[in-house]
Design goal:
Order of helices and strands: HHEHHEEHHHHH
CATH architecture of the domain at 4-120: Orthogonal Bundle
Strand content: 5-15%
Distance between the termini: 26 Å
Number of strands: 3
Largest sheet: 3 strands, antiparallel
Structural class: mainly alpha
Number of helices: 9
Radius of gyration: 22 Å
Helix content: 55-70%
Length: 198
């Protein structure tokens, strides 16, 4: 994943039930352990709190992962009463630094998923929802309208697809504050047949 669009896409998927892959969860656990030491249960709780309850890795995912991280030398373990407390090791810190950009994206995906679901399931006013998520109502409405408009043109012919692609490229360039793409629609290759409906 290398863009804000992929973060939004993964954030939307996550809240519909998709889970993080094992290697992604591993990076995120190391990211949390880089902040402070955790017991296994505390890690599960931390994921739930950061995602507002929308992502809670199971004990069956967390505890084997912690054991694996210990075996790899990425964590050290100290017994606190009857619980094992995990800390990131020098080797684990190096692995995290080597993959920091990916780890940052994963946490951004988690935050996006939490905001999206908080907005969709809110029992509050738009003003209150904006305070909770940081999203303006018009921002959310514009994103929804764009998705709907694209869906309605899913059966467009090639000329129309090229026209829409130019619009989207120009819009993307403006959002990213880059030079706009050419505003002229590329010439048709002569194939204006309609796509079959999915």
């Amino acid at each position: 994943m290398d863009s804000a669009n992929s973060i939004q896409r993964r954030g939307s998927q996550l809240t519909r039930g998709r889970k993080f892959m094992a290697d992604e969860l591993r990076l995120m656990v190391l990211g949390l352990l880089n902040e402070r030491a955790y017991h296994g249960y505390e890690l599960i709780k931390e994921f739930g709190e950061r995602s507002r309850g929308f992502y809670n890795p199971s004990p069956g995912a967390i505890y084997p992962l912690l054991k694996h991280l210990e075996e790899l030398g990425h964590t050290t373990v100290e017994l606190k009463g009857k619980r094992k407390q995990y800390q990131i090791s020098a080797l684990g810190s190096q692995y995290l630094r080597d993959n920091q950009a990916h780890a940052d994206q994963l946490f951004a995906i988690l935050r996006h998923a939490a905001k999206r679901m908080a907005w969709m399931s809110r029992a509050m006013s738009d003003e209150e929802a904006s305070k909770q998520t940081g999203w303006l109502p018009e921002f959310v409405q514009a994103r929804i309208a764009l998705k709907e408009a694209l869906l309605m043109r899913d059966n467009a012919d090639h000329d129309e697809q090229r026209r829409i692609a130019v619009i989207l490229q120009n819009t993307l360039a403006q959002i990213q504050q880059q030079e706009p793409a050419l505003s002229k629609v590329p010439p048709s290759a002569g194939d204006a047949e309609r796509h079959d409906k999915a």
